[in-house]
Amino acid sequence: MTAPLAGIRIIEVGVMLAGPYATMMLADLGAEVIKVEPPGGEISRQVGDSYFASLNRGKRSLCLDLASAAGQAKLGELVTDSHALLVNMKPSVIRKLGLTYEKLRTFNPEIVCVAMTGFGLDGGDDPAFDYVIQAATGVAAMTGDPDGPPTLPGYSSADNSTGLTAALGLLAMIVAGRGGQVDVSLRDVMLSQLNYRASAYLNDGTEPCRHPYGAHSYYVPAQLFPTAEGYLALFVTHDGFWRSFAHEAGIDGFETMAERAARRDEVLRVVTAALASGTAAGWESRLKPLGIPAAAVRTLPEALSAVPEILVTAGDFRLVGSPIHVAGYTPHYRPAPAFDELSRRHADASVQSSS
Fold first, then answer.
1. HEC-encoded secondary structure of the chain
2. Superkingdom, according to UniProt (predicted)?
3. Given Cys at both, which of 70, 75, 150, 227 links 140, Cβ 3.0 to 4.6 Å?
4. Which sign does the torsion angle of CA 302, 306, 310, 315 carry?
């Protein structure tokens, strides 16, 4: 099957995670992604080869000094034959390097220009790394034990979420068939993902509070529970789940969602006592066949070994494959590009043609 994005060319001027992740998702779907790197290479090459490979597979690398006239001229040539350009840098740098639709429309009025920034193209140049955004948007404050400090997740949730959102905006404009500027900020993405939390405060004045073991604000029981060995995530969202779980665990009462919410502490004591009789893995094997949402807490190595079908090989690296599965299409996972490989290929082709 032809790749869903076959024939789509995207220029990436990306650094570190958010921008490169966005375009890698598009490359997995068949888009041609040209990664424009500065002299010396994109900074994430310095983090490590596996880090770079995990965010840049399937792309082509081209070194351009965008601060030079020659680099700008080559960028204009690329834009002429491309569908989109995606960049994640400070707003002032984006404008200085001419990476906006206003500047690039002269080369191609149908080009889609996606700018990923911390606070928007007009939001200033304050540093906006993932952890800073999580702190600034309230995510860290609502995460962790009630009696403990604010907590950050163990992965870059703001960068990854913004990358996916930017890819969506880019594709929306391509489907619309018109060029233009798309402005996506880490701050706005994270606030958007607080949806029901933000709505509860804006409409009811309800501020989010932390519960032990990451318990859900509305559903009870829906949290982590200690067991005889390991921790179990249990997520009971409606009365049908509760009836099945209560029967398996030997618990009586608390039959409605409203009652369980009103008697949260009692419910949690009873459930905790029941789950202490077995291991997390044992409870998972008992509850899953009943259709009850439950899973033992796994380490990353355990989680990866449990799903070998989603692991792929790209060059010398084993990676997690695309999460987007299109019927009839299997991505071709090419390795991350060598630095400036397009220039070297062009030079080799010129030598061969002259000889």
1. CCCCCCCCEEEEECCCCHHHHHHHHHHHCCCEEEEEECCCCCHHHHCCHHHHHHHHCCCEEEECCCCCHHHHHHHHHHHHCCCEEEEECCHHHHHHCCCCHHHHCCCCCCCEEEEEECCCCCCCCCCCCHHHHHHHCCCCCCCCCCCCCCCCCCCCHHHHHHHHHHHHHHHHHHHHCCCEEEEEEHHHHHHHCCHHHHHHHHHHCCCCCCCHHHCCCCCCCEEEEECCCCEEEEECCCHHHHHHHHHHHCCCCCCCHHHHHHCHHHHHHHHHHHHCCCCHHHHHHHHHHHCCCEEECCCHHHHHHHCHHHEEEECCEEEECCCCCCCCCCCCCCCCCCCCHHHHHHHHHHHHHHC
2. Bacteria
3. 150
4. positive
pLDDT digits (tens, 9 = 90+) for 307-349: 999 999 999 999 999 999 999 999 999 999 999 999 977 666 5
Among 130, 159, 183, 188, which one carries the catalytic annotation?
159
| Number of CB atoms found within 10 A of residue 293's CB | 14
Q: Is-contact 9 82, C-beta < 8 A?
A: yes
What pLDDT is stored for residue 285 in this prediction?
Answer: 98
Residue range 148-154: average pLDDT? 94
pTM higher than 0.90 for the full model?
yes
Are the C-beta atoms of residues 69 and 25 closer than 8 Å to each other?
A: no
- pLDDT of 46 > 60? The answer is yes
Instruction: Give exposure, 250-280, as e/b (b: 16+ Cβ within 10 Å).
Output: eeeebeebeebeeeeeebbebbeebbeebeb
Residues in the chain, total: 355
Neighbours of 165 (CB within 10 A): 22
Q: Looking at this protein, which amino acid is placed at residue 34? A: I
Under a CB-based contact definition with an 8 Å cutoff, are residues 341 and 34 in contact? no
- Residue that wins the pLDDT comparison between 350 and 42: 42
Model pLDDT, residue 354: 54
Q: How many CB atoms lie within 10 A of CB 344?
A: 13
